[in-house]
Design brief:
- The chain has a single domain (2-164), classed as Rossmann fold (3-Layer(aba) Sandwich).
- It has six helices and six strands.
- It has helices spanning 2-12, 44-54, 88-97, 118-124, 129-151, 154-164; strands spanning 19-21, 24-29, 32-37, 64-68, 76-79, 104-108.
- The strands form two sheets. The chain has a three-stranded antiparallel beta sheet with strand order 1-2-3, with helices on both faces. Strands 4-6-5 form a three-stranded mixed beta sheet.
- It is globular and about 40 Å long.
Amino acid sequence: MGWLSADHLAQRRNLGRPQTKFRGEFWRDGNLILLKPLTFMNLSGASVREVFDFYKLEPEDVLVIYDDLALPYGRLRLRAQGSAGGHNGLASVLGALGTLKVPRLRIGLGGVPVEQGGMISRVLGHLSQEEQDQLPDILDRVEAAVHDWLTMDIQKAMSRVNERGKE
């Protein structure tokens, strides 16, 4: 979902093809930097750290967008900080930046029973037709959430995104 979100944002902002930079696919549009790490997910923090250092960012300048099996499909949750909650990609970013104070936007992927292949199958598998039909709306809501994060105080953005994310 993170990669789909980055692609959606780049397409909506007419950013064209990404550069290969910082061990990932990279776009820049004013104060928005989009990065899709090309490392293994569990090592994505190394890619984020390169951008972080190059642009002399602060942890609150980084928004990690990722899928979350604990949320119902399509639900959005914006948080200012916290633990990785078992997500290895986020744990890598938090470790590379040395802080838990990194904003994150979780996109619900919904759980899946073990008999249907479990977590790995859900995260790496394909969306159902019904889920694919909902995806454009979800990505539009992600775009609105990123806009709110860029333009508002984090608390106000969290309030708006988390309320809107229930749709």
